[in-house]
Amino acid sequence: MNETVFLAELPWTEVGARIRAGAPVFLPIGATEQHGHHMAMNVDVVLPTAVAERVAARVGGLVAPTIPYGNRSQPKTGGGRGFPGTLDLAASTLSAVVRDVVLGLFRHGVRRIVVVNGHYENIWPAIEGIELALEAIGPDRTDGLIVLRVDHWDLIEPGTIDRIFPDGYPGIELEHASVIETSMMMALRPELVDLSRAVHDGPAKFVRYERYGVATPEVPASGVLSMTEGSSAEKGHWLIDDVVEGLTAAVVREFALEPRK
Ligand code: ZN
Ligand code: MN
Asked: What global pTM score does this model have?
């Protein structure tokens, strides 16, 4: 039978067998959002899916279909909604989707779930979805269910950040479509990146509050919040290795699993 870790690429019989064997199930959450002139709009989908795929392969896990829409893109973290093609969900909608998928997995006997997030604005709606699912199940009926939630960039090692940003790290919020995401995409899906088209009009300098009802003039016209100079596939591999190692270790520890080779 097919060796894939992707749940939707398997027949139900195989999914059932793997769940009975205790497979952790990864749920990547992404976004369909502008990522500058030089990258495709599916960056926040590709990155958490790739991380989940690699970790699942190492721990005997399954990867549920990635949620391709994220919570509303914000000017300070994704450029915002003014860029053509950026499509997003209200926080309450995304929370409800996460809740329903977690509940569905639980109903099928999954007791180890890992929500892998790829889009900054998804953080709180994802947490809310997990909380809603736990509330719906009821505190006395969880039957050993453990749900982990992670933002993939939080597993990048500080030493790797220092190597990539010897002149100072702009911070993850400003990394939208910048060196980290661009490098990871160059490592994973080089055909979706064209650095020759990159436009450098950042870094953005935001005020320390948000405006609603009017545009945010601080958003660079390119949609890149920081910079793309220095991006490379090699750096992308360093970043992906950190995240895959870190998440594998976390999953093995939290679920008391035996790692595979
Ligand atoms: Zn992104
Ligand atoms: Mn994003």
From this structure: 0.97
